[in-house]
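Researcher: I'd like a candidate sequence for this fold, 157 residues long. If you have to choose between options at a position, lean toward the conservative one.
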């Protein structure tokens, strides 16, 4: 991987989300596994995996779409979805579906399982984000976290 900052990371930084926020959010639900026994090793592997995912144009497209949808919903621009209903919940499931799609794209079914953990706990940066963006970032964190655990299982060192 080159040392260039992925464009999606630059986009997220403009939204107030850093690579450290992403890593720390994943670490809040860290469970030691064979090949991934320490938080230091997890941090290293998470950083690598985040940089890889953040370099994927499809992840970029999905994430930006969610952030744009969040802005549109907050401004009452999504047909049939008032600002009050958007912020009031329950009833909206599109946010969950988008988060699941991101986790699934990055890590498959294992990512979906991990998304459920992150969506229920809302660790780290997730609790500070809106309904659509917390699931978008939750899907990213879940997919990356799942890939890290899978990689560690395959290559225990």
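Model: Candidate sequence:
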């Amino acid at each position: 991987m080159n040392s260039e900052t992925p464009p999606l990371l630059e986009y997220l930084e403009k939204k107030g989300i850093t690579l450290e926020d992403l890593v720390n959010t994943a670490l809040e639900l860290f469970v030691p596994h064979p090949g991934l026994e320490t938080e230091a090793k997890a941090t290293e592997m998470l950083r690598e995996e985040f940089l890889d995912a953040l370099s994927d144009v499809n992840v970029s497209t999905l994430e930006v779409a969610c952030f744009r949808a969040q802005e549109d919903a907050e401004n009452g621009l999504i047909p049939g979805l008032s600002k009050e209903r958007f912020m009031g919940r329950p009833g909206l499931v599109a946010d969950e579906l988008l988060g699941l799609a991101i986790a699934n794209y990055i890590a498959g079914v294992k990512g979906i399982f991990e998304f459920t953990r992150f969506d229920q706990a809302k660790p780290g940066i997730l609790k500070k984000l809106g309904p659509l963006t917390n699931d978008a970032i939750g899907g990213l964190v879940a997919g990356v976290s799942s890939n890290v655990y899978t990689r560690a299982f395959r290559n225990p060192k």
